[in-house]
Design a protein that fits this description.
This protein is mainly β. It contains two helices and ten strands; from the N terminus they run E-H-E-E-H-E-E-E-E-E-E-E. The strands form two sheets. It has a seven-stranded antiparallel β-sheet, with no helix packed on it. Strands 7-6-9 form a three-stranded antiparallel β-sheet, with no helix packed on it.
């Protein structure tokens, strides 16, 4: 039997911390910017919205962009992870689509790193690996996997939005 690609932790945060993050990201208070394609391999023009919490240069670990004024919301997640450096933390909000077509498979960085995906809301979307393994979008769940594993998002058809927080770290 093939080993699972990701470690899944349900009920990752206490209810208050989870609600604070969800209430911010799923509200009009969150500043989102529109990105036309899901990744550099995607030509579909099925865009999504992004809120950048932190983005560091992978060589110097200096911030490439201003840190989000809402970065404090992520502290409860970060204090439960083991890491040496943060590469990037951003939230993605995917509008509902008519069909569940997988986006292009990709890796976030082309060097050894760890991906942590925190699922903000429950919907029928999921994260999928090349071997077909799927991680359902279940609120307050964290998936941890090797960042060199090709993966993709499959957007939901049952809710207005799918919201995740993608955390790239060095361990």
């Amino acid at each position: 039997m093939e080993q699972k690609k990701a470690k899944i932790i349900s009920n990752f945060l206490d209810d208050q911390s989870f609600r604070e993050i969800k209430n911010f990201l799923m509200s009009p208070r969150c500043p989102w910017r529109f990105i036309e394609s899901v990744n550099k391999y995607d030509n579909s023009k099925n865009g999504y919205f992004l809120h950048n919490f932190k983005d560091c240069d992978p060589k110097t670990f200096q911030d490439r962009f201003p840190v989000s004024e809402n970065f404090h919301l992520i502290f409860k997640i970060l204090e439960k992870l083991k890491y040496k450096n943060i590469l990037r933390i951003r939230s993605s909000l995917y509008p509902r689509r008519d069909k569940q077509d997988p986006d292009a498979f990709h890796i976030d960085y082309e060097f050894d790193h760890t991906v942590c995906i925190y699922y903000v809301n429950t919907n029928n979307g999921y994260t999928m690996f090349e071997n077909g393994e799927k991680i359902p979008s279940k609120e307050n769940q964290l998936a941890i996997f090797n960042g060199l594993e090709k993966h993709c998002s499959v957007v939901q058809t049952d809710t207005a939005a799918r919201c995740i927080i993608n955390i790239n770290i060095l361990q």
